[in-house]
Amino acid sequence: MRRIHAIATCLLGLALAACSSDKKDAEPDPNLVPTNYRQEIVDTLLKTLDDPTNIREAVISEPELRVAGQSQRYTVCVRYNPRDLSKRYIGPQVRVVYFFAGHLNQIVEATPAQCGAAAYKPFPELEKLCFASKCA
């Protein structure tokens, strides 16, 4: 009888262990291709720029898998000319955007090595930013 109890206990333990390795606990793929990257960048810059209205010369690159530290991540380069709080244009800003698991993770100032050779395309969504009260 003890032997049957021990076997049943082992089988129950194995069944519970199988349930604990559910897909929900699996690590996300850090290098999923970002699909909504343009909108995520617009949403982030809307919150972080001093004056996100009337941005000029906005351009963006396509997502590209690059070395970032000791791993690879999808990155996008963005260049734009924003205004400061006194409504003066401050000159072109170049940022590199890092993605993790297909979503924006970080925006930082880019070095020439990171974005100097980027193939930019127009980014009209960024130039059309406005505050909700001024969008009517």
Task: Report what the structure shows.
The protein has 4 helices and 6 strands, in the order ααβββββαβα. The longest helix has 19 residues, at 2-20. With 136 residues, it is α+β, with helices and mostly antiparallel strands. Strands 1, 2, 3, 4, 5 and 6 form a 6-stranded antiparallel sheet that branches. It is globular and about 45 Å long. It has one domain (37-134).
Write out key terms for the chains shown.
six-stranded antiparallel sheet; 136 residues; single chain; 4 helices; alpha+beta
What's the structural blueprint in terms of helices and strands?
Elements: H1 2-20, H2 37-48, E1 51-60, E2 64-68, E3 71-83, E4 93-100, E5 103-109, H3 112-115, E6 121-122, H4 124-127
Antiparallel strand pairs: 1-3, 1-6, 2-3, 3-4, 4-5
